[in-house]
């Protein structure tokens, strides 16, 4: 298995979600390890637990510190610990756009509501006041908008007739501890798991006009409705161990040139290679999705009937 992803957890208090992640990470086969717990409050109870569990900690009181300065310090500690992704677990301080830019989509958070409902604080009281029948929790990617980043997954929790904000919070917390470790595992492997890679390819391919997914030779393939193929997704096809998207080049010359220029990215696929298709590997650990998108677009155009190819999109 590939190296484990290195996680830094940011907390401000109790740290029960932090504990759930730490213990989940001990399970055989967990794709991440917790390498640093950092806090903006040296008194945060979770720090003691992290230390007792042998995890490095960093704490600095944030009161009065300008946001950019504090976040830069935090960021340098996270880099020093060689952190790959950051998990917020009850971190009660907004992160600056500079910090988020630097960690570029690699920060996730758990929030005690079914987002997009009840962003911010006091979620349980608000759910009860609204007469909701269910509450729950969400794990999302952190963006500059408070609790507004893409939702990765959620768990629903029933609301009982005699629930108080406290009793509901306690039950939602149990759900949080189930949800967060699982979603973090999916998140850190999203660039390597074939099913996750396919999901992204599918999303990109199916936004093209009249695109549809079919199966061809046992693999997911994308074509223009009832017409020609413009992409094949292959994973371990005939046991080759490769996960890739196959797209159509203008012909043998372009194909050879690309493979020559970037032999770790491109290859000549069996069978389809003869008719100008090229394989673009998606299993390198970091995929340039913009590039994949451009290729799908180009491949779509190469096979699109005139009436479609002329569409401005
Ligand atoms: C949790 O309810 C979490 O959803 C929210 O803050 C709380 C933190 O609790 N973001 P803990 O410190 O993980 O116990």
Summarize the structure.
This protein is of the alpha/beta class.
What are the salient characteristics of this protein?
single chain; 313 residues; alpha/beta; Rossmann fold; Aspartate Aminotransferase, domain 1; 2 domains; six-stranded antiparallel β-sheet; 35% helix; binds 5-O-phosphono-beta-D-ribofuranosylamine
Oligomer status: single chain
Bound molecules: 5-O-phosphono-beta-D-ribofuranosylamine
Structural Rg:
23 Å
Q: CATH homologous superfamily name of the largest domain?
A: Formyl transferase, N-terminal domain
Name the structural class: alpha/beta
Q: Tell me the span between the first and last alpha carbons.
A: 41 Å
Low-pLDDT regions: none
Main sheet strand line-up = 3-2-1-4-5-6-7
Task: Count up the helices.
Answer: 10
Could you state the order of secondary-structure elements as H and E?
Answer: EHEHEHEHEHEEHHEEEEHEEHH
Description:
There is one protein chain. The chain has 313 residues and is of the alpha/beta class. The chain contains ten helices and 13 strands. Helix 5 (123-129) crosses helix 6. Bound molecules: 5-O-phosphono-beta-D-ribofuranosylamine. Residues 11, 13-18, 89-90, 110-112, 137, 173, 176 line the site of 5-O-phosphono-beta-D-ribofuranosylamine.
